[in-house]
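TL;DR need structure tokens for one chain.
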Amino acid sequence: MKKIWQIIVLMLCFSVQTMAQCSLCTKTAQQLGEGPAKGLNNGILYLAVTPLVIIGILGFRYWRNARQS
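>> reply
TL;DR here they are.
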């Protein structure tokens, strides 16, 4: 289990430069310029990560409560 957490932390640390744009968002970002394009990309990543973190927290709490029972 410790190895899995290490892999997850490494993935999060190295995913900072991830490009998370679909083809439509890429075309829009090209028209906006470099500064707003980075903001658009960060917004997309924020919207993608938030539900995953919530699901992870709920899953961890369920796993912890099931283990205590």
